[in-house]
Every structure is written in structure tokens, then in C-alpha cells.
Description:
Layout: E1 3-5, E2 10-12, H1 25-52, H2 56-82, H3 91-110, H4 112-135, H5 141-167
Antiparallel strand pairs: 1-2
Helix pairs in contact: 1-2, 1-3, 1-4, 3-4, 4-5
Amino acid sequence: MQELDTATMQVETPAPRASSRGFDPEAMLAVLQELIVVCRGGERGYRRAAEDIEEAVFRTLLRCYADQRAQFVCMLETLVGRFGGTVAARESMIGLIQRSWSGLVAALVHGGDKGVLEACVRGEDAARRAYETALSGPLPIDVRAMIEQQYLNIKEAQERLRSLQRIV
Length: 168
């Protein structure tokens, strides 16, 4: 909405913010593809962590997070198809995810359950950054709402994992 500054008789336009206006469908598809790769990496990382963690309660939680990331992938893939794209993995993001979860193997060997949880927190750091980047650009309202909800779930998971680290 524009406001009229009566003192100078100039029209003031509010600062632009990331919204659904002027979104580039190709750029949006690229963002969705990146989030798919991030979530696939998270799913694999959580499944691996669940296999090797000793505490049964943690194992159940990590499996739930793996299932949640798989759901995120399905939702994102549906959006890609709806906007005429095809799902394809991007090498740069795969490398990022592999690096983010690479500490998991070392943590499993050296850090016990606390190390596994630390590696999961680091993986969620990478996911959070990817989602923040995605949300910084213009997106259709429904796409933004879905990505925001997934982002909140990732932040919640990360905070829960940090809390568990403190009690292990």
C-alpha cells in the first residue's frame, strides 16, 4: 500500500519484502530442488543415527525425524510437479548435505549417544540455513506457508536435540 506524504507531496512506497509478487518460477523450482536434497540428506542421516544410537528413546525420536523429512520430500516433490518441474538432485547441495552429516560416522565411533546427537544438531544447522535462504526470496503464498512450517519443524527438532544433548 502506498502512502501520500502531504508535506512533500511525494508518494512513499514501503520497502520491498519477499512475497509472492514477482516470483520467478524457475528460481522457485531450483529452491524447491535444493530443499528436497536437504531433506533427503536429513532423512538418511537420521536413519543412520537411529541405527547406531544406544538409547531406545533417542532411536525412536530419530526415526520420527527421518519419517518427517521423508514427508517433507514428498510435499516438496508435489510442489515441483505442480509447477511443471521434474525432481533432480543437484551436486552442490548433495555435497553440502554429505559434509553436514559427515561428522555422524565419527560421532558414532567416538562420541556415543551425545556425539550422535551433536552430529544431528549440525545437520539441522545446514537444513535451517537452506530453509532461511529459501524463505529470503519471493515465493507464492501457499509455497511460502509450507516451507515456513517445515522450517519451524526443523528448528523445533534442533532445539529438542540440543536439550537432549544436555541430559546425556
